Amino acid sequence: MSNELIALGVEGLGLDLTPENLANLELFLQEMHRWNRVHNLTAIDNEQDSIRLHLIDSITVLPIMRHYLKIQSPQIADLGSGGGLPAIPIAILQPSWHLTLIEAVRKKTAFLQHIRGKLGLKNIEVLSERAEAVAKARPGQFDAVISRAFSSLTQFLDLSLPLLRPGGLVFAMKGKRADEELKAVCIDSWQLLADESLHIPNLAVERRLLVLSPMRKLPLSAQH
Ligand SMILES: C[S@@+](CC[C@H](N)C(=O)[O-])C[C@H]1O[C@@H](n2cnc3c(N)ncnc32)[C@H](O)[C@@H]1O
Q1: Full-model pTM
Q2: What values do phi and psi take at 146, rounded to 5?
Q3: Where is S-adenosyl-L-methionine annotated to bind (predicted)?
């Protein structure tokens, strides 16, 4: 695996990556492969697929997130982070954003802590907990919640709602079943702000990023 190999895919995304960014992304992938061999962190073991499917997929969301997250240092929760996607690549490329990685399986959070130290990522925290528990323990603390391959859209929205600050956003990384999943979402409770197609260089798979915001119900006294 080389910097050039990663650059081949990320060039097409229009992100201005520094040599340090590329070195850190590469180190992350190397560590993932190393831990995968021992702990089976992810299902895909082929290096080329891994680069495209995991890493590139995770950073294609960045331009859209940048567009919607206007504040300087948003607090973002990644539910069901697994081996660190999409949170680790985002944290590498956006050092001013703070990411909370929530993952229930301990061997995975051990890997995430290892990555935090290895890459010197000061802008992430790793919680070895179920998202349901964090939703209760830390209500209203996040400007955004994101997930990739975590749960159904409706379950993800239900879990995200208590975590969000007023004005907070949900970013749902989805594949071709997005339309079907959107039909199940209560339109009185959620507004779909964007449904963006993600283009992954050299790979013909349908990937989409849905951006949603909760409709806050007015208290009865404020309704006419
Ligand atoms: C299919 S993996 C996806 C991991 C990563 N987001 C990715 O895209 O590679 C789903 C992850 O969610 C975690 N998970 C499932 N339900 C969870 C919950 N309620 N709270 C926290 N983590 C959960 C699982 O342990 C697993 O690591």
Answers
A1: 0.92
A2: -130, 155
A3: 80, 85, 131-132, 148
